[in-house]
């Protein structure tokens, strides 16, 4: 799972660069940039591409348990000895478990925090006033002017908020969105109300759920926080552009209302917007200047002239394994292997103990298996294969012994003997997905005989 998260983060880098370049070039509208940022976020939480799509990405190491541990490369020997002597022989598994626990705690924190915000907002809505008939008529007129396709949202008037925003409740996804309106709505121009209705038309409150999923899964990744922020900024710019298209005469009033809203936002004591909220908060000076510049200059996106589908196809292609991004299996090969074996000193002690036990009882299958494992840890692959053959003769876990023998022979360079041992292991019931992803058999992967053995 950890490798999958890292793989998605790296695969999204191509999309990040693409979206960032398009955003900086200012040749494409905010609608296109927003779509690309959304693709980045989706890519970072997408599962591995199934093998039946023809884009094999491999599987995480945990999907195929390793029956033996290959000897660590020479430059890792000191790491293995130091970590094993300091933290025990199972230190790498303990480290992986610790990382998973930390990740799960981070996910739980994000979920609990957002649920708390959701409940905070619901308590505020319990004190909300129903919208007056005049306000509803005003919103309907604005909706007709922007040609709103979805049905109108529920409208609630709440004291103490600085600006209107759109909210999708946490518990009931089937419930329609709620438009939260401040009590001073009479002083706001129609363009401000239109801004929130454009959020509804663009389904930005649904995108907020994608943001929440990405944040819960990838809370540890600073790239996700950057992409999420860019997604919110581009959504606001896209809504501004759409509002100016329908309300060009309110350009200055709209900009003035934005500045006043941000001033009230700085002094507000109201709770932070919760899940499913189509609203970007915390504008810094550069973002605010960019937004006001676009509003006052009357910049609008020409959505029909933009090759949005073509750009989306290119962006998806850039993130698919085997193209700009590596496959999951290829990434696993590039990553340095975390040693998951006994130290040299411990392997030597185990070998001496196993030899002593075999002198007393040559038919002790457990001692034979321990001897083979110790020899593999010491890099004596071909000698270990002969010991594993003895384990098969003793009928002590013959399936595991044959598979370990194939791995040991493959690491020792005897490919033909490794293929024969693997064929025997498969006949004893070893699942074919094990050798497909076991790095100990990487020397056999390019061989047609190996591909025939592990074919589905």
Element layout with pairings:
Elements: H1 2-11, H2 13-25, H3 30-45, H4 77-87, H5 91-126, E1 129-130, H6 133-145, E2 154-158, E3 165-167, E4 178-182, H7 190-201, H8 204-217, H9 222-246, H10 251-267, E5 277-278, H11 285-297, H12 308-319, H13 328-334, H14 344-360, H15 365-377, H16 381-393, H17 398-412, H18 415-427, H19 433-437, H20 448-453
Parallel strand pairs: 2-4
Antiparallel strand pairs: 1-2, 3-4, 3-5
Helix pairs in contact: 2-3, 2-12, 3-8, 3-9, 3-12, 5-8, 6-7, 7-9, 8-9, 9-11, 14-15, 15-16, 16-17, 17-18
Task: Give an overview in words.
With 456 residues, this protein is mainly alpha-helical. The protein has 20 helices and five strands. The chain is elongated, with a radius of gyration of 30 Å. 35% of the residues are buried.
């Amino acid at each position: 799972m950890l490798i999958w998260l890292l793989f998605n983060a790296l695969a999204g880098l191509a999309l990040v660069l693409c979206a960032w370049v398009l955003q900086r070039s200012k040749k494409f509208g905010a609608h296109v940039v927003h779509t690309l940022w959304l693709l980045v976020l989706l890519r970072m939480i997408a599962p591995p591409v199934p093998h039946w799509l023809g884009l094999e990405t491999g599987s995480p190491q945990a999907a195929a348990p390793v029956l033996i541990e290959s000897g660590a490369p020479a430059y890792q020997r000191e790491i293995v000895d130091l970590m094993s002597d300091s933290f025990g022989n199972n230190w790498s598994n303990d480290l992986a478990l610790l990382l998973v626990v930390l990740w799960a705690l981070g996910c739980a924190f994000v979920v609990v925090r957002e649920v708390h915000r959701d409940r905070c907002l619901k308590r505020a809505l319990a004190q909300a006033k129903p919208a007056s008939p005049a306000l509803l008529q005003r919103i309907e007129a604005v909706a007709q002017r922007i040609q709103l396709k979805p049905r109108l949202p529920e409208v609630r008037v709440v004291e103490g908020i600085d600006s209107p925003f759109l909210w999708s409740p946490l518990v009931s996804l089937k419930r329609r969105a709620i438009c939260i309106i401040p009590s001073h709505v009479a002083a706001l121009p129609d363009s401000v109300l239109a801004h929130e209705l454009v959020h509804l038309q663009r389904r930005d409150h649904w995108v907020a759920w994608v943001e929440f999923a990405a944040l819960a899964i990838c809370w540890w990744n600073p790239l996700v926080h950057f992409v999420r922020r860019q997604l919110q900024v581009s959504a606001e710019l896209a809504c501004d552009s759409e509002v100016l298209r329908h309300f060009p005469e309110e350009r200055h009033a709209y900009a003035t209302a934005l500045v006043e809203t941000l001033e009230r936002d700085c002094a507000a004591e109201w709770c932070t917007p919760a899940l499913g909220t189509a609203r970007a908060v915390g504008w810094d000076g550069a973002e605010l200047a960019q937004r006001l510049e676009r509003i006052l200059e009357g910049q609008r996106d020409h959505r029909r002239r933009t090759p949005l589908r073509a750009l989306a196809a290119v962006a998806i292609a850039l993130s698919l394994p085997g193209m700009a991004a590596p496959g999951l299996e290829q990434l696993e090969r590039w990553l340095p292997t975390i040693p998951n074996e006994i130290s040299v000193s411990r392997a030597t002690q185990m070998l001496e103990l196993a030899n002593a036990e075999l002198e007393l009882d040559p038919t002790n299958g457990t001692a034979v298996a321990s001897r083979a494992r110790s020899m593999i840890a010491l890099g004596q692959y071909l000698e270990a294969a002969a010991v594993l053959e003895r384990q098969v003769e003793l009928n002590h876990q013959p399936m595991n012994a044959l598979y370990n023998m194939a791995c040991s022979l493959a690491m020792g360079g005897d490919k033909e003997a490794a293929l024969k041992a693997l064929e025997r292991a498969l006949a004893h019931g070893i699942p074919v997905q094990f050798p497909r992803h076991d790095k100990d058999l990487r020397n056999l992967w390019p061989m047609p005989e190996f591909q025939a053995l592990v074919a589905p």
